[in-house]
Amino acid sequence: MIGATHSSRTFSSSPRHGNARPSRCGCQRGAAAVEMALIMPLFFLLVMGMIEFGMIGFHKLTLTQAARTGVRAASMGKPVSQIVATTQQSVASSMTIPSANIIPEYSVGGGGWMPLTDGPPVNGQVMNGAPPDALVRVRIAAWKHPLITGSFFAWLPGVTSNALPLNSGMTMRRE
What we know:
single chain; three-stranded antiparallel beta sheet
């Protein structure tokens, strides 16, 4: 049955196997390219989303570690300038935290949070002004995570100028 037709498809028999198979007609050409054109935008969206959210997670964890390092210094009574410097030094070299974004605070007896300032020198050492057993916390507020995908994820809540503000904080008891 060489050249037999069936429902507008041409079949030819293979001399080697003897079975009938559809021949390559014009209706099948370019199907793979069309399928790829439909799938590739979704694939790139998925990959770029994984990269972006991975970087957001990395920066959030780094800020949390920086806040933990800063609050440890505050709980040991270090002066405010040293708390800020310790917090800034504990982040990855690719990140910088402006000192204005680092907020050391303390709370006594469940009251509100008050700004942490340096107290009077004790034995010639400057200590912070939080009394012993007070809660101290270091907050990192509104650190700007630059979106590596540019405006691609600008629809996320809080994104301004292709940057997502991240916050972190940690609380300990003053020793």
